[in-house]
């Protein structure tokens, strides 16, 4: 992470505005900072490699403390750029699936071929442990499984039964009290940390990992919105916004 990026986060999230406005302002500031300060990763990588190559050639001709320090500084900078490049491609792989997944591109066609190969059932094992390889046999086995799942030997049932006679489990009084208690900041934090950091982001482009990394700065905003939603029983419209992709089944 760039050393100046946490300052951009703090400046954006110190504003006393609604969460949606804060995220929008932060996105604008982050894009501007990316262009003016952070720069283009691959251009920086080429520039550092060129300087490193020149410093090492100069060291081969004559040894000096300045060149040794410069080489160490460039190696550290190059290692940081490699980490940034790794994170860039990790993010890019998710965004490509979101942006290009439903377009008529080579990316889409390759993805469909891979998914089709993964989803194709060539054989299946029955209840006795025998493998079924014939296509018609696989179809019959799957069909019979669903037929048995949705059938019952019960001809009739009483109209009403006391809950104490149900065979299923039900919550004890202690569990019911725990479920009905008010949501606090610790519950919100635990829910956020239960998410994987770099799953596909939402329309705002922010991963769960961003909120986990900068929780001291953004936590009060997130907690206030989530707790208000539980207390009022109403979820703000923009929190339900998502990206829907049509997956063709062949």
What does the model show?
The chain has 250 residues and is mainly alpha-helical. Among the domains are: 5-11 and 29-103; 171-250, no CATH class. The protein contains ten helices and two strands. Strands 1-2 form a two-stranded antiparallel sheet. Strand 1 (124-125) and strand 2 form a beta hairpin. Helix 1 packs antiparallel against helix 2 (19-38) and helix 3 packs antiparallel against helix 4 (65-100). The model has no long low-confidence stretch (mean pLDDT 78).
How would you write the strand order of the largest sheet? 1-2
Strand content: under 5%
What integer is the average pLDDT?
Answer: 78
Number of helices: 10
Question: What is this structure, in a nutshell?
Answer:
By secondary structure, this protein is mainly alpha-helical. The chain has helices at residues 5-13, 19-38, 41-61, 65-100, 106-119, 135-149, 173-179, 185-193, 208-213, 215-232; strands spanning 124-125, 131-132.
Features:
mainly alpha; about 250 residues; flat; 10 helices; about 0% strand
List the helices and strands and how they pair.
Layout: H1 5-13, H2 19-38, H3 41-61, H4 65-100, H5 106-119, E1 124-125, E2 131-132, H6 135-149, H7 173-179, H8 185-193, H9 208-213, H10 215-232
Antiparallel strand pairs: 1-2
Helix pairs in contact: 1-2, 3-4
């Amino acid at each position: 992470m760039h050393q100046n990026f946490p300052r951009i986060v703090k400046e954006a999230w110190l504003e006393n505005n609604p969460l949606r406005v804060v995220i929008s302002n932060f996105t604008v500031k982050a894009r501007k900072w990316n262009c003016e300060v952070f720069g283009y990763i691959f251009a920086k990588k080429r520039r550092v490699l060129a300087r490193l190559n020149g410093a090492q050639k100069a060291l081969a001709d004559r040894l000096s403390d300045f060149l040794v320090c410069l080489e160490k500084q460039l190696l550290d900078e190059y290692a940081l750029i490699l980490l940034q490049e790794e994170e860039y491609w990790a993010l890019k792989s998710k965004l490509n699936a979101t942006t290009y997944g439903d377009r008529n591109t080579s990316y889409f066609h390759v993805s469909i071929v891979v998914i089709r190969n993964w989803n194709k059932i060539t054989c299946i094992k029955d209840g006795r442990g025998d493998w079924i390889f014939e296509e018609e046999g696989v179809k019959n086995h799957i069909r019979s499984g669903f037929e048995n799942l949705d059938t019952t030997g019960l001809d009739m049932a009483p109209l009403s039964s006391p809950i104490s006679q149900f065979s299923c489990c039900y919550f004890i009084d202690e569990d019911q009290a725990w479920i009905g208690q008010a949501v606090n900041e610790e519950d919100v934090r635990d829910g956020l940390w239960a998410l994987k950091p770099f799953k596909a982001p939402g329309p705002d482009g922010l991963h769960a990992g961003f909120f986990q990394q900068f929780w001291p700065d953004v936590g009060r905003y997130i907690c206030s919105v989530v707790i208000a939603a539980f207390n009022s029983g109403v979820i703000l419209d923009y929190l339900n916004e998502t990206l829907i992709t049509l997956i063709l089944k062949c």
